[in-house]
What does this fold into?
Amino acid sequence: MAKKVVIRNFKNRLEAELAKGYLEAEGLDVSISTDDAGGMYPQLALMTGGVRLLVDDTDMLKAEALLSKKSDDQ
It folds into this structure.
């Protein structure tokens, strides 16, 4: 059974959602974790480590490579 690992931290949910969508389009199982009171207080995310992007530990290397490639393309 794969466990979820954090591969990136983002400053806001929008950036994390964009990365999540990109990885999901590549077939990965991705989730987002943040402590922002259910979205009511997005500024809390900055004080609690940001918005975390998680993937299965078995997909970590692939996800990192995809995100690095995406960053290089921009």
